[in-house]
Structures are given as C-alpha cells and as structure tokens.
Amino acid sequence: ELSLEDAVRGTTIKIRVPTSVTCSTCGGSGAKKGSKPEQCTTCGGVGQVRMQQGFFSLQQTCPQCQGAGQMIKTPCGSCHGQGRIQEHKTLSVKVPAGVDNGDRIRLTGEGEAGERGAPSGDLYVQIAVKEHSLFVRDENNLYCEVPISFVTAALGGSLEVPTLDGKVKLKIPAETQTGKMFKLRGKGVKSVRGGPVGDLLCRVQIETPVNLNGKQKELLKHFDETMSNQGVKKHSPKEHSWLDGVKRFIDDIKL
Q: Which of 63, 149, 229, 231 is deepest in the core (most CB within 10 A)?
C-alpha cells in the first residue's frame, strides 16, 4: 500500500515476493547433473499423439511426457525434475508519479521461471493507495472538507487550507452557506497517463459552537431576537422559502 503523497509524487519501494526460479543445480533441465532429458518414445518428441476412432483422427497431449516431448529418467535431486524451485526474492519497484488504485506496474522477466529452462514470465504489481486523513481522490481531483465558524461564514474572512504542496490561503466571502465548494486550480493530481493537473475542491462546513458559557448564550439569544425582529425573509431566505413550502403542503392536505 502507498500513501497518497507517494502515489502522487512517485517513489521507489521494495517488495518481497514468493516465486519460482530456475534450479541452479540442473540449470532448469530437471535432469540430474551429468545426465540430460531424453526424447519421449511414445510421441517421438512432439508432445502430441494421434488416436484413431473409426473415420476420425484425434490429436491429444502425450500421456507419457505430458506434452513436454522429453522424459527425465534421472531427475534432479534439488528440484525433483521440475527444473525450478520455490524461493522468495526482494525487488525494487519504481512507482511513477500519479498512479492510482488499481493501476499495475509491469516488471519484465521478474515473474515465475518457465518449466524446463523456459524464460521467466513477467510480474505485475497492483497499486493500492491508503485512505488519507484529509483528502479524497477522484481521478485527478482532490476533495477535502473545511470547517469554518458561523461568524466567518456570515462576515467573511480567510483561512489556511492544506494542499499536497503546502498551505495556501482560502478567501471565504461573506454570507457563505454550508456545503459551498471552493476550487483551487492546479492543486490536485497529475495523472500517470498525462494530461492537465487536477484541482483541489474544498467544501466548507459551518460548525455549530459548543460548550457555550452563560454570557455567550445570552449574546446569541439577543442576536436571534434582532434577526427575528427584522423578519426571517431578509436574513434567512432559504428558511423562509422552506417554511412557505411547508405551509403550502399542509394547506394542500387540508383540501
């Protein structure tokens, strides 16, 4: 698993994987040292045999050599005739910048050794990115939630928000409502596949104050009274619209 920062910037990691490697004792032949595989006498070395059934001729894998075309009369004591043994190996993997969950990195020739000295296959490393405490990634964009006080939301202000490149100032205009999204262009992720850098989108959440003392509660009550005296419609248009909707709904039910 990678951190979001490593996935965005790129890094080099070491992984330890179980794999099959060519047997060093027999060099992958599967035969005991000093001997060598012999041609299968059943299929003549082609690995296939023909079966005649009436008018039909069927070709199938040789039951004697299992399609190898060769037989090992004296198998290697280390690999027991398989030509490869199980080991663990540690690999250094260069992770390019911009990878995301599910991306795969191909390591050519680092897969399992082929049978009887055949070339090794490739190893694919699948990327998994850990959850981040602040950011959520969606393709090239990053999202985060920013709590603000209701005073800042009402009067406006500025605050510092984190990005993967450090802190930047975010200006909050007066009368900002909770859930409003602010876009910081170019503060997202540049995809490993190329294209423009994504954006950082900050969603503000207005935090209700807690643990108020008596004086603070009285001030809020006084503030609420001044708001009510001037009418809900002026200071809370959404609340006014909602109350009108509720009234119409109840009136329709009574009809």
A: 149
Task: Name the amino acid, one letter, at 145.
Answer: E
Residue in the block written with tokens 């005739």: 81
Digit-coded pLDDT (tens) for 24-47 = 888 778 888 878 888 888 887 788
Contact (CB, 8 A) for 90 and 14: yes
**What domains are there in the chain, each with its CATH number?**
4-37+72-126 (2.60.260.20), 132-208 (2.60.260.20), 215-255 (no CATH)
Instruction: Count the neighbouring beta carbons within 10 Å of the beta carbon of residue 56.
Output: 7
- With CA atoms as reference, report the closest residue to 163 among 183, 136, 196, 187: 187
- How far apart are alpha carbons 223 and 238 in whole angstroms? 19
**pTM, two decimal places:** 0.68
Q: Which two three-digit tokens encode residue 142?
A: 């990053």
DSSP state of 188: S
Closest to 146 (Cα-Cα) out of 168, 174, 131: 168
Cα separations in angstroms, 100 against 8, 70, 138:
8, 46, 9
At 29, is the secondary structure helix, strand, or coil?
coil
